[in-house]
Amino acid sequence: MAGHESHYILPRPAFDAPVKLLIVVAPYYKDIADNLIAGAKAEIEAAGGSWEIAEVPGALEVPTAIAMADRYSNFDGYVALGCVIRGETTHYDTVCNDSSRALQLLGLQGLCIGNGILTVENRVQAEVRADTADQNKGGGAAAAALHLIALSRKWGGQKEDVGFRPLSETIRLAGDNDGTPTA
User: Fold this and answer.
1) Where on this chain does (2S)-2-hydroxy-3-oxobutyl phosphate bind (predicted)?
2) Is there a binding annotation on residue 127?
């Protein structure tokens, strides 16, 4: 069974400056959401970070809340949490695919997001994955966000002096209309 396999887990990143994450959770299955939150909070705190929680009605609203928070607030990263259990209709497929796709698109725009929205066949699978003493997918989602924050801080300073020169520098190098460079 996949749940009992051994997997490599990256070492927890260290930060010179504090990190602040927003945990966005859809608590439709409250007990499962509570376990996911507990795992995420513990991982963030273990890395010396702080967190806030925002609740939304369902998994489809999680990406929208993250996009709003990124626009209006100052979080370093985000943890998306919730649970979608397969039902009798195709609504499951829509919710799983669309919430995941929206989170991925936000990530491709540069947001540091750990996706901990469980997509499972039944409640037992969700309970095992949310349990902090078992698969701890909430903690895993927080760890993913923390690793992305570490990468963004590592690479964030490399934007200067890369690529084309700014127009103001190009004009300065062109000289005073006589074509003679000033630098």
Assistant:
1) 88-89, 129
2) no
